[in-house]
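DM from R.C. (forwarded with permission)

"hey, sorry to bug you on a friday — could you get me a structure for this? deadline for the figure draft is monday and I only need the backbone to look sensible"
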Amino acid sequence: MRKPEASSLGWSRWTPPTARSTPPESLPVVLPAQPSPGFQRVAHYYNRYLLRRAFHAVWWRGVDVFTAEPRRPLLIYANHPGWWDPLLAFFVVRRTGRDGYMMSEEKTLRAFRFFRWMGGFSIDRTNARDVAQSIRYAAERLRSPGTALWIFPQGEITPPDKRPIAFFKGVAHILRRAPTCVVVPAAIRYEFDDQPRPEAFLDFGAGETIRGADVSDLVGLTRHLQSRLAERLDALRDSVWERRREDFALALRGRRSISDAYVDTVARLTGQSR
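My reply, with the result:
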């Protein structure tokens, strides 16, 4: 699938006065999030339209972790199988009523500036000073009740079945600097079945409460998080490959496909009910 350009998404033409008047050379090392409630309301409906057009269906399980303790900050660390991952993350936080933030590559935020209005903030892994500031910025977001901070610690698009899972250690560094929060592994997978468009699957693991003051072994914590995400990815793969749709709840139904229209037409012509 060809990646939509910013102009095709329909959001790049509108720029807030503050963003338009800020010259690139004066921007901070970390491009901070600039959440806009009004823009996010509009973006949510447009995002649903994009997802319904791209996927036959979006399925999820374990999403109750977002609402079990609505005031407790969440850190969600997910695998990164495709371009649609940030838009699925935005869909989840809007549906669950969380204040969403997401760490994104600096080049992505400069190309798609609207991600900042949706809660995105930058990281440049080629710049050690920038990485340190991004980690501090992320940890500070976790001090606000109701926050859901999304991290894709693989750092690049990676097939969901690639093993071993490799992480940057940024998640562990964030947790060491953050107060108590709930840490959630999130497995994402896209799969074609008997429809012309793929289905998207999200599988959220059980929340694990971690207190920053208790974090000392960053390498050990990173390995633990990798193991938990690998377990979720394996469980998701098995459920999808075995076509156990009853394991999931339908989060979003896509637009009618050519296959649906064909089956309905044949049913009408033959007098059969679908």
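R.C.: lifesaver. The mean pLDDT is 87.
me: no worries. Residues 6 and 50 are 13 Å apart (CA to CA).
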